[in-house]
Amino acid sequence: MADLARVLIQDGTLTLPQAERAAKAARGGDVASAALELKLADEGALVRGMARAHECPGIDLSRSAIPVAWLDAAGGAQFCREHRVVPVAVGRAELALAMGNPDDLAAADEVRFLTGKKILRYAAVGTAVVRALDGIERARAAGAPAWRGERAPALPDRAAGHAAIVKAGDPVASVALPEAEESMEIVGLADVMEPFEPPAPARQAAPPAAPRRPAAAPGAGAPEPHQTLRLEGLAIGKVALVADDDADVRQLVATVLAKMGCVVLQASDGKAALEMVRDAAPDLVVLDAMMPAMHGFEVCRAIKGDRALRTTRVVLCSAVYRGTVGTDAQLAFGADAFIEKPFRLDELTRVFKVALVGPAAAETTEERAAREEGMALWRQAADALTENRAERAVELARQAAAKDPWSAEAHYYLGHALVKLGQLFEAVAAYERAAELRPDVDASYQCLAQAYEKLGFQKSAREAWTRALETCKDPAKKKTIQARLLQLLGAS
């Protein structure tokens, strides 16, 4: 928090003696909370300094109102207290969190996993977060629909929420870039797949005998309790190995694979994983990219470089490496697929389904029909946008995304329509999803970056522009993106 103290002095929020006093009283280096408790500065001014230090907008909770029901949407009171977070906006596809430490990515990822929503992180004074949580629980006990900060505006609806957003400064002027109406026709993997028809029960052969359970690798310890064989599911009798140094992640992935019918083995580091692959010859290996003893990238290269093992399907996962790294990993290390963390369960299932059974299993006849309906709908949404019928475009794009959740185009055009209606929070979630589905296309990243800029998320905007630059194949457009990045860097 030393950086925050300097920012608060530079802003004139605190004098040097006041900053030294707050730093001395701060618990865990939380200067902003100490300054608020000592009444050295107004909460809004402290939040403005935090917004500058963390490069994201902030929330003045004293001027905000939070519906009681929103607390459960962010993991409940206990989780919020442990991480000093409080929800300040809950939308269809996004959730805004006021965070005492907006750099706590682990907490944001956990809320994203619990809710399935895009998480927008806002800076807030930690003490103010705790006070808000106390107030929400008092409001719940009294039967009130919402908690209101002491300076929150009067709202016609007592159950409505209100977030008092504080920005570090005025947004930087934008560089001219392609308009949102730019088309994004993408041919997905499903377009080259044959429909998968499961065999009728009467013609099914008897279940194959369970494979020999491989012995644990030397030094790997006893098998974990959930190494399970289930004689059901499309991957019946196949062996999968999950390697990750995070036990919770291993449990999650193992559960998904077990439900698909796999024998699931586990390893907590790369070296043990490679030994187990050589001993057990699994059908599928799921590797975290960064592990102790030996990185997942190295394990993947060793598997694909071994003549006896190279047909083993390998899925790499990472919370650090993102975007085009997936394509690079497949080319450089031979991985069959790459998934970014935090996981989406539907995406995990789909990737494992293709890896274990083959591309034909990724789409049934019904799914193909739904995808074709979705394609017709997002094309209608694109037409509605060109006719300036944004509300109709939102309706059509939502229908398209419901029909085919894997359509990058549906989410992309939904983002465009939401921007036109001024619904930037939901637009960010839509563009993020389009970029997740097609990380090799720069258009989603460009629109995402512009939406982040309008919201004041400068750090997130820079990250999106960087990913757009990495994926862009047009030299002229790359120069424009580079110029934008330089402007943002100069403004930080």
TrEMBL record:
Q: Which PROSITE patterns match?
A: RESPONSE_REGULATORY, TPR, TPR_REGION
Q: Which residues form the Response regulatory domain?
A: 239-356
Say if the entry is tagged with keyword Oxidoreductase. no
**Keyword match Phosphoprotein:** yes
**Which residues carry the post-translational modification 4-aspartylphosphate, per the record?**
D288
Say which species the protein is native to: Anaeromyxobacter diazotrophicus
Enumerate the UniProt keywords alphabetically. Answer: Phosphoprotein, TPR repeat
Region Disordered: start and end of each range? 197-224
What is the official name of this protein in its record? Answer: Response regulatory domain-containing protein
Q: Which SMART domains match?
A: REC, TPR
* Any single GO BP term: phosphorelay signal transduction system
